[in-house]
Structure prediction request, 171 residues.
Amino acid sequence: MGLGARVVAREGRVPRISYRWDRETDILTGAVNRDAGEGAGLTGSVELEGNDGSFILLDVRGGVICGVEVVVWPDVRTVASLEPPRGVKDGQVVLPTRRSQPSVAAVEVDTALTIETNATESVFHVRVGPGRRAEVIRVADGLLVEVDEQNDLAGLWLTEVPPFPADEPPR
Prediction:
């Protein structure tokens, strides 16, 4: 099942996303630092559930992504030369493409999830479903969203991710 996504123009500056790691759970959380705007879509959460038990949660308001959490990681493949795409356009991506019903606060999507990272683990590329041609939109400094030719969510790029916190030295 795909997740409908609509690219819309952005008014004003692109917001910034701040990432933080939970040392105890290995959860990576990203939150948009200011109002991401509001579109005509779901307000609640989009749960991307991988076939392998992996789990990524997108916080959305009016369909606009306001946060991301990588809760249960699929196998992560390191690609030394992995870099985010260049020359992407700024915009918003509204998920899903239709306004949610008043009683619907979450959408669950079962799909294959794969993640690649660079050698320093500062860039993560999350692929939703099979690899395919997609347009890349900067929805926040540090967060790029891929939308395929069928207007479905195809992936995410998490950039400028801080290093995982080192273990505390013994006392």
Remarks:
- The chain has a mean pLDDT of 87.
- The two ends are 51 Å apart (CA to CA).
